[in-house]
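quick one
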Amino acid sequence: MPEKTPSHLPKHVAIIMDGNGRWAKKRYLPREAGHYAGMSAVRETVRAGCDMGLENLTLFAFSSENWKRPKTEVGALMGLFRAYFRSDMDELVERNVRMRIIGHRGRVASDIQQMIQDSESRTAKNTGMNLTFAFDYGGKEEIVAAVQELARAAKDGRLDPETITPELFASRLFTSALPEPDLVIRTSGEHRLSNFLLWQSAYAELLFLDTLWPDFDRATLTAALEQFAARERRFGALDSEAVA
Ligand code: IPE
Ligand code: IPE
Ligand code: MG
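structure w/ IPE:
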């Protein structure tokens, strides 16, 4: 399949990487094996995004609700996160990727916090694809944190509440440096957002795929981008034909 030209690409693709557990179950493997296979799909998707000239790719890796899972599974996911940083950072730097992590930060182990900081500072000057991992991320928490910040500023007299606009609000979110996602993909056949980028996805095209995350690859991404290109986005207005 030919590579997409940048003019057809969405500016920001965000993916809810779901279905690792079911992928493993189908093979009579432990859930952790599904997460491990999911890491290879992350690697391939990141490479494909870079090769296509995608500007922004955001991947939902661990939700603030995923702490509810058994300790062993959470431990395995944290271990994979560490492994990914160790094995892939050099390649990401080489590919000029700028890495960001959005999420709570304070709740993960201190060595992971350090890895997050190091990867962000190591790639801070990179000008290629913005690769963002949502890790210990919850959309409602993010919105509440922004509300608290604005409320504190108003209380201290540093902010007139009347001047709060959607743009000002968005500037207080973790994603302030990124455009809003124009395409949100969820794998594994589930049709929900599970607390992912709630504010930012207000006008995103949503694409639900039956593919389980470990099976997601370059071809799946290309097909998803083709589907996006065929969609008509109206943003509340009328399409061009109706206006003419
Ligand atoms: C997605 O796969 C990975 C994370 C949520 C961390 P799941 O682990 O949710 O896989 P399923 O949904 O059980 O198949
Ligand atoms: C969403 O998947 C979170 C990530 C992909 C990291 P979940 O598997 O946790 O979502 P639910 O529980 O099915 O809504
Ligand atoms: Mg799931």
